[in-house]
Design brief:
rod-shaped, single chain, mainly beta, four-stranded antiparallel β-sheet, three-stranded antiparallel β-sheet, Immunoglobulin-like, 162 residues, 15% helix
Length: 162
């Protein structure tokens, strides 16, 4: 029995010595890091120009900023039309895809105007450009001059992350 106590005591001392030795050689490691988002989202209008203007029409001076293009088309007679070409560019660092295009024609404006569009590209990768065309036509089938002679048109193009 005495031999068992000596062995048990020796094992306990050995385990305590190993624990103390392990603790003295143990190290805490601290790991730190910084994460930064470096991507930039920037889809913008870079140009607008009238590309097809009938002889009796006035395309005005189209204007634009990063997110809006404006034009003021003046048509004289049925069948007249003007086409505006709007250039859209991805100047950011994230590829984009076309999500939706909303067209809003002024319901109270003249019914004599017909708007047609040619949609931009479905994808707009970094540094790529695409064009969006809008053609305004004085309805060639109209038989009388309308009482209301103007109409507002708004188109919203929405791109999302690809």
């Amino acid at each position: 029995m005495k031999k068992k106590k000596i062995i048990t005591s020796a094992l306990i001392i050995c385990i305590l010595t190993m624990s103390i030795g392990y603790a003295s050689f143990a190290s805490n490691l601290e790991i730190k890091g910084v994460t930064k988002i470096d991507g930039e989202w920037e889809i913008k209008i870079t140009n607008i120009k009238a590309t097809e203007v009938c002889d009796s029409c006035d395309a005005g001076t189209p204007t634009y900023d990063d997110t809006k293009a404006n034009f003021n088309a003046k048509l004289t007679k049925p069948g007249d039309s003007i086409t505006y070409e709007i250039t859209i560019k991805n100047t950011g660092t994230i590829d984009a895809k076309l999500d939706e295009i909303e067209l809003d024609n002024d319901k109270l404006g003249s019914p004599a105007f017909i708007y047609t569009t040619e949609d931009p590209s479905d994808t707009l990768n970094v540094n790529d450009s695409t064009t969006y065309k809008i053609t305004i036509t004085y309805d060639p089938n109209i038989t009388t001059i309308p009482d209301i002679k103007d109409k507002d048109f708004t188109s919203t193009i929405k791109y999302i992350q690809k």
